[in-house]
């Protein structure tokens, strides 16, 4: 298991927001899973991955909106096809795409429906959120711009202070001021300490600012769940060069792929290799004792780490 990776075996029972064992969803031409995964409670987990990797499908699985094989539990309740035992009331959700059947409602009308459905509903909280997002209360949802509608839907989804908040690309369409308000409100939501946020995103800055954990998805599979701070701290790209000037270029990258911590290695010039490592100290020690000098060592961005994991995932298929 990679450094900083959070696995099923490291979770204390009862401390997880989501637990999946062999959970799978099958569409025409797409399979999510089977996934074995636990997502910790009381934390923020960002789901990242290329378009079509299954982020929305995973959120839909957790909401029982997609029929699921295997075992899945949310907030300690096993998901079953026939009963949700009040689970929906404990969750807030904003989907990636709005529901057309709500187009004729204003935000306040949608809120009125939600207030009857959710025991934890607070009009005070709803109004504060609407003010904070500067959301429109009068316009029909169907006549709103994408960002306007998103702000209203976020306010409705958060007004019952759900134990678990599932957001699918929450900042899609938001202007910079609304985006900042959203980050502030999500931070405030988490401040209580017993709330869990899971969100899908393509925005690196959101991951940096909000997430405790990062879940990488690709082609319906989970490439790993990592503690964010350790992920950014640990992963590095190294440039190394053979000290003896030996050629054997292809061999160098191939051999270095076997070195400790190495997640990827490519030729980058005569006798020079570019190595991606999640245990750079061990990788460096190996390189130094095997005829290489270290030219540089740099932290990796989220996109670079994801590209490396995706390449590795594709190679292992
Ligand atoms: N209702 C559906 N019926 C059939 N296929 C679907 C359905 N919903 C999603 N898919 C397919 O499932 C795959 C995963 O889609 P999903 O929306 O989960 O990806 P995503 O990671 O959220 O993508 P994006 O970043 O573009 O939002 C895609 O190939 C998509 O075409």
Automatic annotation (TrEMBL):
Keywords annotated in UniProt: ATP-binding, Nucleotide-binding, Transport
Domain of life of the source: Bacteria
Record flagged with keyword rRNA-binding: no
Pfam families, sorted: ABC_tran
UniProt GO molecular function: ATP binding
Segments forming domain ABC transporter: 9-244
Gene3D superfamilies: P-loop containing nucleotide triphosphate hydrolases
InterPro entries, sorted: AAA+_ATPase, ABC_transporter-like_ATP-bd, ABC_transporter-like_CS, ABC_Transporter_VariousFunc, P-loop_NTPase
Listed PANTHER family: ABC TRANSPORTER ATP-BINDING COMPONENT (PTHR42939:SF3), ABC TRANSPORTER ATP-BINDING PROTEIN ALBC-RELATED (PTHR42939)
Protein name: ABC transporter ATP-binding protein
Organism in which the protein naturally occurs: Cohnella hashimotonis
